[in-house]
């Protein structure tokens, strides 16, 4: 029941913040998939590759349809560049041991959504997850709900960054 409520809230937030446009189906797929992946990550500390790739592919395809429908092909390049840049940034972080591969895979989806909406949204999608994750970790540590060294999934913070990027685009 919580999952259905969360999904409804995510859809409502995207449509309310962004309005209904040709890109709305892509944003809704990204939001719903992101919510589901965040819940999975919270429960099992893992982002399944097949689901991440499916969500990213579906979102990319819907962005292409949106760009073709609106005649704005430049946004496809922006989304692709955003996805590639954020994936590369997360990959470099993962090389240092600071991030799991599932987070790197999910970065492509975040980068595409941020890139679709422009540079400011991309920066929000890129940086906000780290701030949200740090704040959540500090809050959980202060309230003694999580011990030092206990892992905290990064996927939910990534979703927060993606939703904020959509909000900044409005």
Task: Give descriptors for this structure.
single chain, mainly alpha, 81% helix, membrane, transmembrane
Architecture overview:
By secondary structure, the protein is an all-alpha fold. It has one domain. Helices cover 81% and strands 0% of the residues. Helix 3 (49-70) runs antiparallel to helix 4, helix 3 (49-70) packs parallel to helix 5 (101-117) and helix 6 (119-142) crosses helix 7 (155-169). This is Prepilin type IV endopeptidase peptidase domain-containing protein. One of its GO terms (cellular component) is membrane. GO terms for molecular function: aspartic-type endopeptidase activity.
Rounded average pLDDT: 87
Overall shape: it is globular
N-to-C span? 29 Å
| Number of helical segments with 4 or more residues | 7
The share of residues in helices is over 70%
Stretches where pLDDT is under 50 for at least 5 consecutive residues are: none
Topology order in helix (H) and strand (E) letters: HHHHHHH
How much strand content do the residues show?
under 5%
Biggest beta-sheet profile: none
Our count of domains comes out at: 1
The count of strands amounts to: 0
As a whole number of angstroms, the C-alpha radius of gyration is 15 Å
Task: Decide which structural class fits the backbone.
Answer: mainly alpha
């Amino acid at each position: 029941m919580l999952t259905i409520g969360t999904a409804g809230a995510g859809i409502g937030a995207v449509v309310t913040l962004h309005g209904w446009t040709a890109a709305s189906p892509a944003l809704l797929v990204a939001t719903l998939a992101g919510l589901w992946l965040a819940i999975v990550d919270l429960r099992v500390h893992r982002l399944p590759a097949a689901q991440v790739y499916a969500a990213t592919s579906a979102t990319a395809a819907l962005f292409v349809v949106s760009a073709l429908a609106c005649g704005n092909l430049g946004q496809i390049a922006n989304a692709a560049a955003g996805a590639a840049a954020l994936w590369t940034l997360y990959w470099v972080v993962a090389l240092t041991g600071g991030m799991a591969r599932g987070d790197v895979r999910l970065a492509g989806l975040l980068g595409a959504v941020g890139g679709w909406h422009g540079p400011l949204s991309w920066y929000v999608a890129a940086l906000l997850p780290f701030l949200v994750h740090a704040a959540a970790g500090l809050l959980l540590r202060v309230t003694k709900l999580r011990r030092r060294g206990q892992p905290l999934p990064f996927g939910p913070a990534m979703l927060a960054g993606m939703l904020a990027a959509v909000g900044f685009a409005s």
